[in-house]
Specification:
Helix content is 61%, strand content 3%. The protein has helices at 3-10, 14-22, 42-55, 60-71, 77-114; strands at residues 30-31, 37-38. α1 (3-10) packs across α3. The protein is elongated, with a radius of gyration of 26 Å.
Length: 133
């Protein structure tokens, strides 16, 4: 199949396909006598996997590590799980930081509601942000 048909089947652009080839995520296909790429039937499944893996939060380098295992006939489940677990831990840390940032912003907002704007006389600082203004 030609690149346009593959792109349509896998719901990615031809530019994406060429990029994935250039970085080794997608094996370079055979070429027709005309020079056109000739992809096998498995290329669309591989592209869908790459797209789905990206949607789950994996980076292209991480996806490549999974595909390398698959390409050598190895089981990739434990490796993939460790990648996903690391992403979960990262998300948990981000959520904790966001919760703390929200708490601090809520405090500042509450402080803003209790302050008298006419009391803000410092030309360089806002009393809402700076308690000693």
């Amino acid at each position: 199949m030609k690149i346009g048909e593959l792109a349509e089947r896998a719901a990615v652009s031809t530019k994406t396909i060429r990029y994935y080839e250039s970085i080794g995520l997608l094996p370079e296909p055979a070429r027709l006598p005309s020079g056109y790429r000739d992809y096998d039937d498995g290329a669309d499944e591989r592209l869908r996997f790459i797209r789905d893996a990206q949607a789950s939060g994996l980076s292209l380098a991480e996806i490549e590590s999974v595909l390398e295992l698959k390409d050598t006939g190895q089981n990739s489940c434990a490796h993939t799980r460790s990648l996903l677990d690391r992403h979960l831990a990262d998300l948990d840390m981000q959520i904790a930081r966001l919760v703390e940032a929200r708490r601090e912003l809520a405090q500042l907002s509450g402080r803003a509601g209790a302050l008298d704007p006419t009391g803000c006389t410092d030309p360089n600082r806002c009393q809402v942000i700076s308690a000693d203004a």
